[in-house]
Design brief:
Strand content: 25-35%
Helix content: 10-25%
Structural class: alpha+beta
Largest sheet: 6 strands, antiparallel, barrel
Shape: elongated
Number of helices: 8
Strand order of the largest sheet: 7-8-9-12-11-10
Distance between the termini: 40 Å
Number of strands: 13
Length: 305
């Protein structure tokens, strides 16, 4: 029997084969993933040391991946008491893990001390910070108490509120972005904001779903709408990303003339290649194209990195 951090240990009834108990493996004691394991039981949220018997089996975290491929990966855990290392090519950490790591760094608390305060496996805390995970409520309560914060904060509470409500970095660094990096960040599709002057001369900023096709920013709208006022005018278009977990982010500003797309071939190209449909729904068959004449951007990072 071999396991990885995050796998599920299931204990079955010897008579019916039905699951009697299950829990998440939160700690490994051998590099090869063999027992024993630290298991957080789903029915009690208690972590115990388990030597699995013949009535136990493992449900692996990455379902559908061949066993041989998993065994070829380096183990995510190491001997008890030492930090775990995620396998090469591991996915990016989940938001909860990033918030935990960011909060303890702000407080100058080591991973070892955080695990000790939360009474949890160091291996599992390492896994939580470095891989996507779905920790139990008991785990989040322990971490929140250890870091002097709340479960809601670790979960990203206030998701319906404007981004950027987190604490500023201790040593922030504001960097100007070059045109190529601006194009890269602006590319593909997403949600941006177009700044226009309406028919009565008043300014307006409206979010739109956009794509980038042949270096042009394109979006769909309806005739007579606020965003339709962008046509035949020079407009500003902004897209950004705010990382509340790490108090970092970037923004890109494109300025250029906007026009209505009327050429049949161009319309067919947009219908075929544009990836984003307007979230607002409704009849929005008017295509607007913005050709950036200038691209500028900025990024906030930590000066300590």
């Amino acid at each position: 029997m071999r396991a990885h951090l995050g796998d599920q240990l299931v204990i079955e009834s010897p008579t019916t084969g039905a699951a009697r108990r299950d829990g998440e493996i939160v700690g490994l004691h051998h590099e090869d993933g063999t027992p024993p394991y630290d298991v957080c039981w789903s029915d009690t949220d208690e972590v115990t040391l388990v030597f699995p018997g013949p009535d136990a089996h493992i449900h692996h975290l990455e379902h559908g991946q061949p066993r041989t491929a998993r065994e070829a990966q380096p183990d995510t855990g190491e001997a008890a008491g030492t930090p775990a290392v995620p396998p090469s090519g591991a996915a990016d950490p989940g938001d909860i893990g990033r918030r935990v790591a960011a909060e303890r760094r702000r407080q100058g608390v080591s991973r070892e001390e955080t695990a000790h305060r939360a009474r949890m496996s160091l291996n599992y805390l390492t896994y939580l910070e470095e891989r996507p995970a779905d920790p139990t409520l008991a785990t989040l309560i322990g971490l929140a108490d250890a870091l002097g914060t709340t479960v809601a904060a670790l979960r990203g509470g206030g998701i319906d509120l404007p981004p950027g409500r987190g604490n500023a970095l201790v040593h922030p660094q504001l960097q100007d972005l070059g045109p190529e990096e601006c194009r890269t960040l602006l590319s593909t599709h997403g949600v941006g904001r177009v700044a226009v002057s309406t028919s009565d001369g008043r300014p307006a900023i409206v979010p739109v779903n956009y794509s980038v096709i042949d270096d042009a920013i394109v979006f769909r709208t309806a005739p007579g709408s606020v965003t339709a006022a962008a046509t035949d005018n020079e407009v500003a278009f902004e897209v950004d990303h705010v990382d509340d977990a790490l108090s970092q982010g970037w923004s890109v500003l494109a300025v250029g003339p906007a026009s209505t797309v009327t050429d049949p071939d161009a319309l067919r190209t947009l219908a075929r290649e544009a990836h984003t449909r307007p979230w607002a729904g409704g009849e929005r068959e008017m295509w607007v194209s913005i050709r950036p004449m200038s691209l500028t951007g900025r990024r906030i990072t930590s000066a300590d990195e």
